[in-house]
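note to self: dont lose this again. the chain is below, predicted strucutre after it. 389 aa total, dont forget to put it in the shared folder this time
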Amino acid sequence: MENMIYLDNAATAWPKPDIVYSFMNEFYRNNGVNPGRSGFDMAIEAGNLVENTRKRLNDFFNGDSPERTVFCYNATDGLNLIINGLVGEGDHVISTNLEHNSVIRPLNHLIREVGLDVTWLPFNELGFINPEDVAEAMQENTKLVIINHGSNVIGTVQDLAAIGKVVKDTDAVFAADCSQTAGVYPIDMQAMNLDVLCFTGHKAMMGPTGIGCVLVRDHVEIAQTRAGGTGVRSAYPYHLENYPWRLETGTLNIVGIAGLWAGQDWMDERGLDNIRNHELNLMNKFVQNIRDIEGVILYFCDNLENHLSTVSVNVRGMEAMNTGTLLDVDHNIATRTGLHCAPKVHEQMGTIEEHGTVRFSIGAFNTEAHIDKAIAALEDISSFVLKKK
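---
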Protein backbone atom coordinates (compact mmCIF):
# COMPACT_ATOMS: atom_id res chain seq x y z
CA MET A 1 0.00 0.00 0.00
CA GLU A 2 2.84 2.41 0.78
CA ASN A 3 3.48 4.79 -2.15
CA MET A 4 0.90 2.98 -4.28
CA ILE A 5 -0.34 5.00 -7.23
CA TYR A 6 -4.09 4.49 -7.41
CA LEU A 7 -5.50 4.77 -10.95
CA ASP A 8 -8.71 2.78 -10.52
CA ASN A 9 -11.10 5.61 -9.69
CA ALA A 10 -13.72 4.37 -12.16
CA ALA A 11 -14.19 1.39 -9.82
CA THR A 12 -14.37 3.58 -6.73
CA ALA A 13 -12.93 6.99 -5.93
CA TRP A 14 -10.05 6.70 -3.48
CA PRO A 15 -9.09 8.27 -1.23
CA LYS A 16 -12.15 10.21 -0.15
CA PRO A 17 -11.84 13.83 1.00
CA ASP A 18 -10.99 14.11 4.68
CA ILE A 19 -14.27 15.94 5.28
CA VAL A 20 -16.16 12.80 4.20
CA TYR A 21 -14.32 10.52 6.60
CA SER A 22 -14.64 12.93 9.52
CA PHE A 23 -18.31 13.81 8.97
CA MET A 24 -19.36 10.17 8.56
CA ASN A 25 -17.54 9.24 11.75
CA GLU A 26 -18.88 12.20 13.73
CA PHE A 27 -22.46 11.85 12.53
CA TYR A 28 -22.62 8.09 13.01
CA ARG A 29 -21.18 8.32 16.51
CA ASN A 30 -23.59 11.06 17.55
CA ASN A 31 -26.72 10.37 15.49
CA GLY A 32 -26.35 6.88 14.00
CA VAL A 33 -29.88 5.75 14.84
CA ASN A 34 -32.85 4.77 12.71
CA PRO A 35 -34.13 7.86 10.87
CA GLY A 36 -37.84 8.59 10.75
CA ARG A 37 -38.84 5.83 13.19
CA SER A 38 -38.83 7.61 16.56
CA GLY A 39 -39.41 11.05 18.08
CA PHE A 40 -36.31 11.50 20.23
CA ASP A 41 -33.68 14.06 19.29
CA MET A 42 -31.11 11.75 17.70
CA ALA A 43 -33.75 10.13 15.45
CA ILE A 44 -35.05 13.54 14.43
CA GLU A 45 -31.51 14.68 13.59
CA ALA A 46 -30.92 11.54 11.52
CA GLY A 47 -34.23 12.10 9.70
CA ASN A 48 -33.29 15.72 9.02
CA LEU A 49 -30.03 14.62 7.40
CA VAL A 50 -31.94 12.23 5.12
CA GLU A 51 -34.46 14.82 4.01
CA ASN A 52 -31.92 17.62 3.63
CA THR A 53 -29.71 15.36 1.52
CA ARG A 54 -32.68 14.50 -0.69
CA LYS A 55 -33.27 18.20 -1.28
CA ARG A 56 -29.61 18.90 -1.90
CA LEU A 57 -29.26 16.10 -4.46
CA ASN A 58 -32.50 17.10 -6.18
CA ASP A 59 -31.12 20.64 -6.53
CA PHE A 60 -27.73 19.34 -7.70
CA PHE A 61 -29.28 17.42 -10.60
CA ASN A 62 -32.23 19.82 -11.11
CA GLY A 63 -34.86 17.18 -10.52
CA ASP A 64 -38.54 17.91 -9.97
CA SER A 65 -38.94 17.26 -6.25
CA PRO A 66 -36.94 15.99 -3.24
CA GLU A 67 -39.65 13.38 -2.52
CA ARG A 68 -38.71 11.66 -5.78
CA THR A 69 -35.06 11.45 -4.79
CA VAL A 70 -34.89 7.83 -3.69
CA PHE A 71 -31.99 6.24 -1.82
CA CYS A 72 -30.82 2.76 -2.80
CA TYR A 73 -27.77 0.57 -2.21
CA ASN A 74 -25.82 1.47 -5.35
CA ALA A 75 -26.36 2.05 -9.07
CA THR A 76 -26.98 -1.65 -9.75
CA ASP A 77 -29.74 -1.69 -7.17
CA GLY A 78 -31.23 1.50 -8.56
CA LEU A 79 -31.08 0.36 -12.18
CA ASN A 80 -32.85 -2.87 -11.24
CA LEU A 81 -35.59 -0.79 -9.59
CA ILE A 82 -35.92 1.30 -12.75
CA ILE A 83 -35.90 -1.53 -15.27
CA ASN A 84 -38.13 -3.96 -13.38
CA GLY A 85 -40.50 -1.17 -12.40
CA LEU A 86 -40.96 0.18 -15.92
CA VAL A 87 -40.95 -2.65 -18.46
CA GLY A 88 -42.29 -6.15 -18.91
CA GLU A 89 -43.98 -8.50 -21.35
CA GLY A 90 -44.87 -6.89 -24.67
CA ASP A 91 -42.55 -3.90 -24.22
CA HIS A 92 -39.57 -2.73 -26.25
CA VAL A 93 -36.41 -1.17 -24.78
CA ILE A 94 -33.60 0.72 -26.49
CA SER A 95 -30.15 0.49 -24.91
CA THR A 96 -26.53 0.47 -26.11
CA ASN A 97 -23.34 -1.53 -26.41
CA LEU A 98 -21.79 0.83 -23.86
CA GLU A 99 -23.81 -0.50 -20.96
CA HIS A 100 -22.58 -2.01 -17.73
CA ASN A 101 -23.91 -5.40 -16.63
CA SER A 102 -26.13 -3.52 -14.17
CA VAL A 103 -28.27 -2.73 -17.22
CA ILE A 104 -27.41 -5.66 -19.50
CA ARG A 105 -28.23 -8.42 -17.05
CA PRO A 106 -31.61 -7.12 -15.79
CA LEU A 107 -32.67 -6.65 -19.41
CA ASN A 108 -31.39 -10.10 -20.36
CA HIS A 109 -33.38 -11.67 -17.52
CA LEU A 110 -36.53 -10.01 -18.84
CA ILE A 111 -35.69 -11.13 -22.38
CA ARG A 112 -35.45 -14.71 -21.12
CA GLU A 113 -38.36 -14.61 -18.68
CA VAL A 114 -41.06 -12.53 -20.41
CA GLY A 115 -39.82 -12.09 -23.96
CA LEU A 116 -38.85 -8.43 -23.61
CA ASP A 117 -37.71 -6.94 -26.92
CA VAL A 118 -34.41 -5.02 -26.65
CA THR A 119 -32.50 -3.10 -29.33
CA TRP A 120 -28.78 -2.68 -28.54
CA LEU A 121 -27.35 0.32 -30.38
CA PRO A 122 -23.65 0.25 -31.37
CA PHE A 123 -21.37 3.22 -30.74
CA ASN A 124 -19.65 4.97 -33.64
CA GLU A 125 -15.95 5.15 -34.49
CA LEU A 126 -15.42 7.84 -31.84
CA GLY A 127 -17.31 5.96 -29.13
CA PHE A 128 -20.59 7.86 -29.21
CA ILE A 129 -24.25 6.96 -29.71
CA ASN A 130 -25.89 8.77 -32.61
CA PRO A 131 -29.22 10.31 -31.49
CA GLU A 132 -30.58 9.58 -34.97
CA ASP A 133 -30.02 5.88 -34.31
CA VAL A 134 -32.19 6.21 -31.21
CA ALA A 135 -34.93 7.83 -33.30
CA GLU A 136 -34.75 5.09 -35.95
CA ALA A 137 -34.92 2.33 -33.31
CA MET A 138 -38.15 3.67 -31.82
CA GLN A 139 -41.21 1.42 -32.03
CA GLU A 140 -44.82 1.91 -31.02
CA ASN A 141 -44.23 -0.23 -27.93
CA THR A 142 -40.91 1.36 -26.90
CA LYS A 143 -41.32 1.87 -23.17
CA LEU A 144 -37.78 2.73 -22.07
CA VAL A 145 -34.60 4.22 -23.50
CA ILE A 146 -31.72 3.61 -21.08
CA ILE A 147 -28.26 4.99 -21.80
CA ASN A 148 -24.87 4.89 -20.07
CA HIS A 149 -23.92 8.55 -19.72
CA GLY A 150 -20.19 7.92 -19.32
CA SER A 151 -18.50 4.67 -20.35
CA ASN A 152 -16.53 2.95 -17.61
CA VAL A 153 -14.37 1.33 -20.32
CA ILE A 154 -13.60 3.92 -23.01
CA GLY A 155 -14.55 7.08 -21.14
CA THR A 156 -16.81 8.69 -23.75
CA VAL A 157 -19.63 10.90 -22.43
CA GLN A 158 -22.90 10.75 -24.35
CA ASP A 159 -24.96 13.81 -25.34
CA LEU A 160 -27.94 13.22 -23.06
CA ALA A 161 -29.61 16.46 -24.13
CA ALA A 162 -29.62 15.44 -27.81
CA ILE A 163 -30.93 11.96 -27.01
CA GLY A 164 -33.44 13.39 -24.56
CA LYS A 165 -34.80 15.67 -27.27
CA VAL A 166 -35.50 12.59 -29.41
CA VAL A 167 -37.17 10.63 -26.61
CA LYS A 168 -39.25 13.61 -25.44
CA ASP A 169 -41.44 13.40 -28.54
CA THR A 170 -42.37 9.77 -27.77
CA ASP A 171 -44.16 7.88 -24.99
CA ALA A 172 -40.92 6.26 -23.81
CA VAL A 173 -39.16 7.00 -20.52
CA PHE A 174 -35.59 8.26 -20.84
CA ALA A 175 -33.25 6.94 -18.13
CA ALA A 176 -29.50 7.36 -17.70
CA ASP A 177 -26.87 5.46 -15.75
CA CYS A 178 -24.73 8.33 -14.43
CA SER A 179 -22.42 6.23 -12.26
CA GLN A 180 -19.26 7.59 -13.91
CA THR A 181 -20.40 11.17 -14.54
CA ALA A 182 -22.27 12.21 -11.38
CA GLY A 183 -19.92 14.48 -9.46
CA VAL A 184 -17.73 15.24 -12.50
CA TYR A 185 -20.04 16.43 -15.29
CA PRO A 186 -22.93 18.85 -14.77
CA ILE A 187 -26.24 17.02 -15.18
CA ASP A 188 -29.49 18.97 -15.49
CA MET A 189 -32.42 16.58 -15.66
CA GLN A 190 -34.89 19.18 -16.86
CA ALA A 191 -32.65 20.73 -19.52
CA MET A 192 -31.69 17.25 -20.79
CA ASN A 193 -35.29 15.98 -20.81
CA LEU A 194 -34.01 13.18 -18.58
CA ASP A 195 -36.87 11.33 -16.88
CA VAL A 196 -34.90 9.08 -14.51
CA LEU A 197 -31.32 9.40 -13.28
CA CYS A 198 -29.35 6.79 -11.36
CA PHE A 199 -25.97 7.13 -9.70
CA THR A 200 -23.82 5.38 -7.14
CA GLY A 201 -22.31 7.24 -4.23
CA HIS A 202 -18.84 5.72 -4.02
CA LYS A 203 -17.36 7.12 -7.23
CA ALA A 204 -17.05 10.85 -8.05
CA MET A 205 -19.83 11.75 -5.60
CA MET A 206 -17.18 10.93 -2.97
CA GLY A 207 -19.44 8.93 -0.66
CA PRO A 208 -18.84 5.42 0.66
CA THR A 209 -19.88 2.12 -0.87
CA GLY A 210 -23.40 0.86 -0.20
CA ILE A 211 -25.29 4.05 -1.09
CA GLY A 212 -26.84 5.21 -4.35
CA CYS A 213 -29.76 7.23 -5.60
CA VAL A 214 -32.53 7.27 -8.20
CA LEU A 215 -34.16 10.57 -9.16
CA VAL A 216 -37.58 10.28 -10.81
CA ARG A 217 -39.37 13.15 -12.59
CA ASP A 218 -42.93 13.94 -11.50
CA HIS A 219 -44.59 12.61 -14.67
CA VAL A 220 -42.97 9.14 -14.41
CA GLU A 221 -44.38 6.26 -12.38
CA ILE A 222 -42.10 3.36 -11.54
CA ALA A 223 -43.96 0.31 -10.25
CA GLN A 224 -43.21 -0.80 -6.72
CA THR A 225 -41.39 -4.16 -6.92
CA ARG A 226 -40.33 -4.60 -3.28
CA ALA A 227 -42.19 -4.32 -0.01
CA GLY A 228 -41.33 -3.91 3.63
CA GLY A 229 -40.98 -1.43 6.43
CA THR A 230 -40.97 2.31 5.91
CA GLY A 231 -41.66 3.65 9.39
CA VAL A 232 -44.83 5.25 8.01
CA ARG A 233 -48.44 3.97 8.26
CA SER A 234 -47.35 0.66 9.75
CA ALA A 235 -50.92 -0.67 10.02
CA TYR A 236 -51.42 -0.41 6.25
CA PRO A 237 -51.15 -3.98 4.84
CA TYR A 238 -49.37 -3.05 1.60
CA HIS A 239 -46.30 -1.11 0.67
CA LEU A 240 -46.90 2.62 0.29
CA GLU A 241 -47.38 4.08 -3.17
CA ASN A 242 -46.15 7.56 -2.27
CA TYR A 243 -42.58 8.60 -3.03
CA PRO A 244 -39.96 8.15 -1.71
CA TRP A 245 -41.31 5.11 0.15
CA ARG A 246 -42.68 3.64 -3.09
CA LEU A 247 -39.13 2.60 -3.99
CA GLU A 248 -37.49 2.51 -0.56
CA THR A 249 -37.75 -0.42 1.84
CA GLY A 250 -36.28 -0.95 5.27
CA THR A 251 -33.76 1.06 7.21
CA LEU A 252 -31.75 3.50 5.14
CA ASN A 253 -27.95 3.58 5.07
CA ILE A 254 -27.66 6.66 7.27
CA VAL A 255 -23.85 6.68 7.36
CA GLY A 256 -23.81 6.42 3.55
CA ILE A 257 -26.18 9.36 3.28
CA ALA A 258 -23.90 11.30 5.63
CA GLY A 259 -21.06 10.55 3.24
CA LEU A 260 -23.05 11.91 0.30
CA TRP A 261 -23.81 15.07 2.27
CA ALA A 262 -20.13 15.63 3.07
CA GLY A 263 -19.18 14.82 -0.52
CA GLN A 264 -21.48 17.63 -1.64
CA ASP A 265 -19.74 19.97 0.81
CA TRP A 266 -16.38 19.06 -0.71
CA MET A 267 -17.66 19.54 -4.29
CA ASP A 268 -19.15 22.91 -3.38
CA GLU A 269 -15.83 24.01 -1.91
CA ARG A 270 -13.68 22.67 -4.76
CA GLY A 271 -16.05 23.46 -7.66
CA LEU A 272 -17.31 20.92 -10.21
CA ASP A 273 -15.50 22.58 -13.12
CA ASN A 274 -12.22 22.64 -11.20
CA ILE A 275 -12.53 18.96 -10.29
CA ARG A 276 -13.26 17.97 -13.88
CA ASN A 277 -10.53 20.18 -15.38
CA HIS A 278 -7.92 18.78 -12.98
CA GLU A 279 -8.77 15.21 -13.97
CA LEU A 280 -8.98 15.96 -17.70
CA ASN A 281 -5.67 17.84 -17.74
CA LEU A 282 -3.97 14.81 -16.24
CA MET A 283 -5.78 12.52 -18.68
CA ASN A 284 -4.67 14.66 -21.64
CA LYS A 285 -1.06 14.51 -20.47
CA PHE A 286 -1.27 10.74 -20.09
CA VAL A 287 -2.86 10.18 -23.51
CA GLN A 288 -0.52 12.50 -25.40
CA ASN A 289 2.55 10.86 -23.90
CA ILE A 290 1.57 7.24 -24.43
CA ARG A 291 0.10 7.77 -27.89
CA ASP A 292 3.46 7.26 -29.58
CA ILE A 293 4.87 4.50 -27.39
CA GLU A 294 5.61 1.58 -29.69
CA GLY A 295 3.40 -1.39 -28.93
CA VAL A 296 0.82 0.51 -26.85
CA ILE A 297 -2.75 0.40 -28.22
CA LEU A 298 -4.96 3.28 -27.14
CA TYR A 299 -8.73 2.96 -27.54
CA PHE A 300 -11.15 5.77 -28.47
CA CYS A 301 -8.99 8.74 -27.60
CA ASP A 302 -8.73 10.40 -31.03
CA ASN A 303 -11.27 12.99 -29.89
CA LEU A 304 -10.86 13.99 -26.24
CA GLU A 305 -13.94 16.22 -26.13
CA ASN A 306 -16.83 14.84 -24.08
CA HIS A 307 -14.54 12.39 -22.36
CA LEU A 308 -13.99 11.18 -18.81
CA SER A 309 -10.53 10.80 -17.32
CA THR A 310 -10.83 7.07 -18.08
CA VAL A 311 -8.56 5.47 -20.68
CA SER A 312 -8.31 1.87 -21.92
CA VAL A 313 -5.05 0.51 -23.35
CA ASN A 314 -3.32 -2.72 -24.22
CA VAL A 315 0.29 -3.62 -24.85
CA ARG A 316 0.50 -5.52 -28.12
CA GLY A 317 1.52 -9.15 -27.55
CA MET A 318 0.47 -9.22 -23.89
CA GLU A 319 -2.85 -10.07 -22.30
CA ALA A 320 -4.45 -7.28 -20.31
CA MET A 321 -4.22 -9.17 -17.03
CA ASN A 322 -0.47 -9.66 -17.41
CA THR A 323 0.06 -5.97 -18.16
CA GLY A 324 -1.92 -5.12 -15.05
CA THR A 325 0.17 -7.52 -12.99
CA LEU A 326 3.40 -5.89 -14.15
CA LEU A 327 2.00 -2.44 -13.39
CA ASP A 328 1.14 -3.62 -9.89
CA VAL A 329 4.15 -5.76 -8.98
CA ASP A 330 6.94 -3.85 -10.72
CA HIS A 331 5.61 -0.29 -10.60
CA ASN A 332 3.15 -0.21 -7.68
CA ILE A 333 0.37 1.15 -9.91
CA ALA A 334 -3.21 0.00 -9.35
CA THR A 335 -5.39 -0.28 -12.48
CA ARG A 336 -8.32 -2.44 -13.54
CA THR A 337 -7.97 -5.17 -16.17
CA GLY A 338 -10.50 -7.38 -17.92
CA LEU A 339 -13.96 -6.73 -19.35
CA HIS A 340 -14.97 -4.21 -16.65
CA CYS A 341 -18.48 -5.70 -16.35
CA ALA A 342 -19.22 -4.27 -19.80
CA PRO A 343 -18.83 -7.17 -22.26
CA LYS A 344 -20.66 -5.55 -25.18
CA VAL A 345 -18.08 -2.76 -25.34
CA HIS A 346 -15.29 -5.29 -25.70
CA GLU A 347 -17.24 -7.36 -28.20
CA GLN A 348 -17.61 -4.32 -30.45
CA MET A 349 -13.97 -3.25 -29.91
CA GLY A 350 -12.67 -6.75 -30.62
CA THR A 351 -10.79 -7.00 -27.31
CA ILE A 352 -12.35 -10.23 -26.06
CA GLU A 353 -9.35 -12.34 -27.17
CA GLU A 354 -7.00 -10.15 -25.11
CA HIS A 355 -9.42 -10.68 -22.20
CA GLY A 356 -10.29 -6.99 -22.26
CA THR A 357 -8.12 -3.97 -21.67
CA VAL A 358 -6.08 -2.23 -18.99
CA ARG A 359 -8.09 0.70 -17.66
CA PHE A 360 -6.42 3.77 -16.20
CA SER A 361 -8.95 5.99 -14.43
CA ILE A 362 -7.68 9.24 -12.99
CA GLY A 363 -9.28 10.84 -9.96
CA ALA A 364 -9.38 14.08 -8.06
CA PHE A 365 -6.40 13.21 -5.85
CA ASN A 366 -4.02 12.07 -8.57
CA THR A 367 -1.02 14.26 -9.43
CA GLU A 368 1.28 14.92 -12.36
CA ALA A 369 3.90 12.80 -10.63
CA HIS A 370 1.49 9.85 -10.67
CA ILE A 371 0.93 10.32 -14.40
CA ASP A 372 4.66 10.59 -15.12
CA LYS A 373 5.22 7.26 -13.37
CA ALA A 374 2.34 5.61 -15.24
CA ILE A 375 3.77 6.79 -18.58
CA ALA A 376 7.23 5.49 -17.66
CA ALA A 377 5.73 2.18 -16.56
CA LEU A 378 4.00 1.63 -19.89
CA GLU A 379 7.21 2.51 -21.72
CA ASP A 380 9.08 -0.06 -19.62
CA ILE A 381 6.49 -2.83 -20.14
CA SER A 382 6.23 -2.21 -23.88
CA SER A 383 10.04 -2.23 -24.20
CA PHE A 384 10.16 -5.52 -22.27
CA VAL A 385 7.65 -7.12 -24.67
CA LEU A 386 9.49 -5.86 -27.75
CA LYS A 387 12.81 -7.21 -26.48
CA LYS A 388 11.25 -10.65 -25.96
CA LYS A 389 10.29 -10.70 -29.62
